[in-house]
Amino acid sequence: MADVLTPEQRSRCMAAIKGRNTKPELAVRRMVHAMGYRFRLHRKDLPGKPDLVFPRLGKVIFVHGCFWHMHTCRYGKVKPKTNAAFWQAKREGNRARDRRHVRDLRREGWEVLTVWECQLRDPEKLERKLRTFLRK
Predict the structure, then answer these.
(1) What's the pLDDT score for residue 95?
(2) Which of 38, 48, 80, 83 is most buried, taking the most CB atoms under 10 A from its CB?
């Protein structure tokens, strides 16, 4: 199926996609805050600028969009039809960068959890996962 937007419209849409304060990230922040945990946001001195940082606990949380970071769920397996080679390279680059950041954080002694956008579809299960991670 052809793209319903013109190249200029598609370009504007893609340029408007944010990297911080996304809906999934805000939902995770609200959930963790409601549990009573306090955190720092996007610490620039850490590899990958994790979305949530718990300095006292030595833990960080990344909130990733399934499409952009190539999650194994059905949303992450979507392949763009327009400019496919570019987007494949871009998404694979994101995935490689994520692995590097997690490796570097673990070497520095941080525990890392990645929350995927699709996990927000089951808030109770995600809350249990977050509690387990933050209590360890």
Answers:
(1) 96
(2) 48
